[in-house]
Amino acid sequence: MASHFGVAIMPARVRKPKDKAKAEGGVLLVTRWILACLRREVFYTLAQLNQRISALLVRLNQKAFQKIPGSRASQFEALDRAALKSLPRSPYIFMQIKTVKVHLDYHVEIERNYYSVPYALVKKSLQAHFSEGTVRLYHEGQCVAHHVRLFTPGKQSTDKEHMPAHHRAYMDWNPGKFKQRAQNAGPHVLDWVNQKLASKAHPEQAYRSCAGLLSLVKTYNNERLNAACERGLKTGASTFKSIKAILKNNLDQQPTELQLDLLEQLTTHANLRQPHEFH
């Protein structure tokens, strides 16, 4: 603060009250000539109180000294006003500084909130500078991250540029993208994804399962994945592990129980001739 306003702070010495006699005397004077005058007065708004204090302050500063000529107002005009500097263009911002450590999720904790830094700094110690509006994080004197200050406990601010590539892809996930990819793979894949997203209280809870299912296209093809989802949905074995097992064991290429039932009905149809009729 002293650097911001261009002033020097000279603290009093320990156990030397006379070093700050003028400051202590000023407190006593204000108590006597302003606060004492207000003790029996009633104010209904802060503006009224401030207006009354301003008037009493002018009276105090213009009150003549008892032992020397002049007043506080005249001394200010003669000595202090010429030495005053203009105020800085920007207001002073109170900044707190503390050392923080980067967690494995490349976030640091400040006042029960979490802020991201480049993931390469995991387990490093950083210096956090935080004010009412911003958070800046420094490593070896270099600013490596800055965020808007959060005030709701448990919230986190994550910059996508700080994330590893595979985490960055995770941030881009949303239900619409999963449904579009599923539709390209086949109608039964889309049904599986829709059911999975609808089964969770929050769609985000199904993202990993949907991503895992759609990644099976790399090993198998769209047709086989679509057939596996059809079999899984019809037989009730519709978890991701079940679909993966169906593909691994080539069950997607086998008829389902429903298809076998239909085949059985066809082979016993009354209008079909039986093998013995051809002898």
Feature tags:
279 residues; alpha+beta; 3 domains; four-stranded antiparallel β-sheet; three-stranded mixed β-sheet; 13% strand; elongated
Topology, please?
Layout: H1 2-5, H2 21-38, H3 46-62, H4 72-80, E1 96-101, E2 107-110, E3 113-116, E4 125-130, E5 134-139, E6 142-148, E7 156-157, H5 165-171, H6 175-185, H7 187-198, H8 207-215, H9 222-235, H10 240-248, H11 257-267
Parallel strand pairs: 3-7
Antiparallel strand pairs: 1-4, 2-3, 4-5, 5-6
3D architecture notes:
This protein has three domains: 24-80, no CATH class; 96-162, no CATH class; 173-263, no CATH class. Helix content is 43%, strand content 13%. It has helices at 2-5, 21-38, 46-62, 72-80, 165-171, 175-185, 187-198, 207-215, 222-235, 240-248, 257-267; strands spanning 96-101, 107-110, 113-116, 125-130, 134-139, 142-148, 156-157. A four-stranded antiparallel sheet has the order 1-4-5-6, with no helix packed on it. Strands 2-3-7 form a three-stranded mixed sheet, with no helix packed on it. Strand 2 (107-110) and strand 3 form a beta hairpin. Helix 7 (187-198) packs across helix 9 (222-235). The mean pLDDT is 87.
Task: Describe this structure in a few short sentences.
This protein is of the alpha+beta class and 279 residues long.
- Let me know the number of strands: 7
Query: How are the strands of the largest sheet arranged?
Result: 1-4-5-6
Model regions low in confidence, pLDDT < 50 over at least 5 residues: none
Helix content, binned percent: 40-55%
Tally of structural domains: 3
Q: Structural class from helices and strands?
A: alpha+beta
Shape: elongated
Main beta-sheet strand count, sense and barrel state: 4 strands, antiparallel
Round the Cα radius of gyration to an integer and report it. Answer: 39 Å
Tally of helical runs: 11
